[in-house]
Amino acid sequence: MRWLIVEDALRDRKGHWLEWVTTFTRGFRQLGDEVTVLADAEVAPDIRDSVGAEPILPRSIWHRLGDSAGPLTRYSRVFTHNWQTWRVMNRYLHSRPEFDAIFVPTVSVHHLLAWGRLIKGPLRRPKTRVLLFFLTAPARVDAAGNAVFDGSPTARLFLALLNWLTAEVQSGKVVLGVETKAMQSALRELTGLPFVWFPQPVAPPVRESRASGEWIEMACFGAARAEKGSDVLQEAIWLHRREFPASRVRFTIQWIDDFHAGRELITKSPVLQADQQMRFVTRYFGDGEYAEHLRRTDVMVLPYRRSSYALRGSRVVIEAAVNGIPVVATRGTTLACVAEDFGTGVWCDDGNAQSLAYAIAEMDSRFEEMSCRAAAARAAAVERFSVPEFRRIFVVSAKLSNPKKPGLVVPTHSGVLEINPEFSHEP
After folding, report:
1. What single DSSP character describes residue 215?
2. In 3D, which of 117, 207, 129 has the Cα closest to residue 164?
3. Beta strands in 208-309 (DSSP E)
4. What is the pLDDT of residue 371?
5. What is the pLDDT of residue 409?
6. pLDDT value at position 69?
7. What is the pLDDT of residue 402?
8. Could you tell me which residues come within 8 angstroms of residue 299 by beta carbon, excluding any fewer than 6 positions away?
9. What is the pLDDT of residues 9-21, one digit of tens each?
10. Strand-pair category, 2-7 with 34-40
């Protein structure tokens, strides 16, 4: 199969974009597929060279979503970025041979109009399938636990554009993908369209079991932010130190920059910086460095806020699951769901430092049990969060079959589907 991966967020080492694209390119190629990658025109040379990306896409919208632009500027970007994306991709597709699959890993409303025009224009070719993958959406969970759109003009445009693609989605020409069960359920309910829950593949495990040692190494990786509860985590560590002085826990937090929680600027705690059993990592990891940290980590502490992670997913909790690392996570988030289904953990209350401090203490007291349970769940996590599983789900969802050739019969929600052996890596 010939893949085209179109990722305008691929520019530097911020976020997980490089790991995300690298996992797919390496995994697809190991399965015998051909892969072409397009990246932000401003992509750093080392990032470009590491995946062989062509730097032609417009400046990434993802790197501008967190700035302080006013409403008019933010809404105008929806249309300008769609126009820029359509112009670049229209030119590119007319000058290249046909791809079997075009994978757009981080779609937002800033891309959806452009891709709709492309799908109804140069991509009308019968062979090409398009996978539009939504890491986020203008939807949320209300106080009663119901999925609702956020009421913004962006949400209304999002729904209108999806409805515009209904025929292509129903035919399998377009596959709408999400990375969590919660997001799938919410968007199916709100749009009436068959969103598909895909795994978010991660790198193969880097550890088989816990490294021996008298300390329990707990960590939170990824740049510190309010939505990830980094402020709550700092306070909880301080409370834990005060209330459980005999604890055998040491902490590592990745804290690239200070951040705002509401109007308050959150900085690294001077008390914790002076703590010999506390370590702040203040830069992005270089090649191979993150894997080394995972080898040393016994527990992942992820107090992400439910307001941001009731629907969206986290790569870090999946990396914990495939490496057999138990987690401490916020109750009611997708992180807790992943840990429940493919690992194990202890849950804390949303935004509550005291609850988090006690959850850390509970993990300390039950660590041997939790570590064994997480190790026992590793195999299921490794199988689920893999490129072959991602590819298999895409093949079924895109209805890639040829009635002239016998194939594999795969059950689906609506019956069975025959898949050509050339599109399947089932045993």
Report:
1. S
2. 117
3. 216-220, 249-254, 259-261, 264-266, 278-281, 299-302
4. 95
5. 35
6. 65
7. 41
8. 216, 217, 218, 219, 325, 326, 327, 328, 363, 367, 370
9. 888 877 678 888 9
10. parallel
Distance, CA of 281 to CA of 285 (rounded, Å): 9
Q: Is 405 exposed, middle or buried (0-12, 13-18, 19+ CB in 10 A)?
A: exposed
Residue 135 per-residue DSSP state: S
For 174-210, the DSSP string reads EEEEESSHHHHHHHHHHH-S--EE-----PPPS-SSP
Identity of residue 286: G
Which residues lie below 8 Å from residue 75, measured CB to CB, with a gap of 6+?
153, 154
Quickly tell me which residue has 């008019």 as its tokens. 72
Query: Structure tokens of 256?
Result: 């690239």
CA angle 365, 369, 375 (to 5 degrees): 135
| Phi, psi of 285, rounded to the nearest 5 degrees | -75, 145
The pLDDT value recorded for residue 261 is 93
Q: State how far the Cα of 160 lies from the Cα of 113, in Å rounded to an integer.
A: 10
25-41 burial, b at 16+ Cβ within 10 Å, e below that, comes to: bbbbeeeebebbbbbbb
Sorted by sequence, the CB contacts under 8 Å of residue 425 that are 6+ apart come out as 31, 388, 391, 392
Domain topology for 216-380: Rossmann fold (3.40.50)
Asked whether the whole model's pTM tops 0.85, one would answer: yes
Give residue 16's pLDDT.
Answer: 75
Whole-number pLDDT of residue 373 = 96
- Residues 1, 58, 228, 225, Cα dihedral to 10°: 150
* Fold of the CATH domain 2-201: Rossmann fold (3.40.50)
Q: Maximum CA pair distance of the chain?
A: 70
DSSP state of 16: T
Cα dihedral 265/266/271/273 (nearest 10): -120
On the CB side of 35, how many CA atoms lie within 13 Å of its CA? Answer: 22
List, for the chain, all residue ranges whose pLDDT scores fall below the cut of 50.
402-427
- Provide DSSP, 21-62: HHHHHHHHHHTT-EEEEEEETT--HHHHHHHT-EEEEPPPST
pLDDT, position 208: 74
Domain with CATH 3.40.50.2000 in the chain: 2-201, 216-380
